[in-house]
Each structure stands twice: as C-alpha cells, then as structure tokens.
C-alpha cells in the first residue's frame, strides 16, 4: 500500500502545474481502483483543507467535493502512539515533525511506499521507500 502526503492531494486538486496535477490524479485514481491501495490520515486531510483555504482561497463547498473524493483513502486516525512515535522518527531521520507523523502513520498501516515530494526520494524510512513522483527522471520513465 502507498501512503499519500498532503502535497499529492493538493496537486490533484489544483491546476497550477498541469503535469503534477495529472500525475497526482493518476496516482490517486489508480490507488482507488486497486481496492484502496492508497492511504491517508486525518492529519493529511486537515492539512489539505488548510492549504486549499489559506493558500489557494478555494471555497468550502469546492474543498468538500475533493474531501469526498479522497475520503475512501482515509485509513487511520493519528493516535497518541503515532504522535509519540513521530518524535523518535523525527530524531532518527532529522525530518520535520509533521513529516515524521506521516512516516509513523504509514508504518502503522503497513505501507510499502510514502508518496511525497517532501521526503528524500528513494530513501528508506523504517523500511518504507519515499517516492517523489514528480522527479524529472521518474516522469520520463513513465
């Protein structure tokens, strides 16, 4: 299973970069078609809502439409165990705390990949590979 970071959802919902939008939509649609082979947490959903409202000034009604589309990916809440574990992930990898929350939640779900442009592409985080689908070399290899 793949865990999707907030930026993947944001790119899917915005048209600022057509190539990234198309790639993000393709990844999400593929995950939904494959019997929910993708996952997000409430943290990712709330970050998505915040970015869409504050940075892109999108209406609540339009955002709600996207939330409904992404809802089937919602796999787990961020529990206190995940919150506490993220402190150690942050320390272990030297990443931002909110990225560490994503790593911890993805691990709890048994994910194999974390799809994100914020983590180091190709790096293993507790056995899960970070994949940046927007890397130029990946885009050519599609």
Overall description:
- With 142 residues, the protein is an alpha/beta fold.
- The chain has one domain (2-137): Rossmann fold (3-Layer(aba) Sandwich), CATH 3.40.50.1010.
- The protein has seven helices and six strands, in the order βααβααβααβββα.
- The chain has helices spanning 6-13, 18-33, 42-54, 60-70, 80-93, 97-109, 136-140, and strands at 2-4, 38-41, 74-76, 113-115, 124-125, 128-131.
- Strands 3-2-1-4-6-5 form a six-stranded mixed beta sheet.
- A hairpin with a 2-residue loop joins strand 5 and strand 6.
- Helix 1 (6-13) crosses helix 2 (18-33), helix 3 runs antiparallel to helix 4 and helix 5 (80-93) crosses helix 6 (97-109).
- The two termini are 19 Å apart.
- The relative contact order is 0.18.
Q: Specify the structural class.
A: alpha/beta
Share of helix, binned: 55-70%
- In the predicted model, the low-confidence regions spanning at least 5 consecutive residues are none
Strand line-up of the largest beta sheet = 3-2-1-4-6-5
- CATH homologous superfamily, by name? 5'-nuclease
Describe the structure concisely for a colleague.
The chain has 142 residues and is of the alpha/beta class. The protein has helices at residues 6-13, 18-33, 42-54, 60-70, 80-93, 97-109, 136-140, and strands at residues 2-4, 38-41, 74-76, 113-115, 124-125, 128-131. It has 7 helices and 6 strands.
């Amino acid at each position: 299973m793949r865990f999707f970071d907030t930026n993947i959802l944001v790119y899917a919902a915005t048209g600022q970069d057509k190539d990234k939008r198309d790639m993000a939509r393709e990844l999400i649609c593929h995950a939904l078609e494959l019997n929910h082979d993708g996952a997000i947490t409430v943290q990712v959903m709330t970050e998505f809502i915040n970015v869409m409202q504050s940075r892109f000034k999108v209406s609540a009604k339009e955002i709600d439409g996207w939330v409904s589309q992404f809802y089937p990916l919602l796999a787990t809440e961020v529990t206190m165990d995940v919150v506490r574990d993220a402190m150690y992930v942050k320390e272990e990898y030297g990443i931002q705390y909110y990225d560490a929350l994503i790593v911890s939640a993805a691990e709890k779900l048994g994910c194999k990949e974390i799809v994100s442009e914020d983590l180091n592409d190709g790096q293993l985080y507790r056995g899960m590979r970070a994949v940046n689908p927007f890397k130029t070399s990946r885009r050519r290899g599609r």
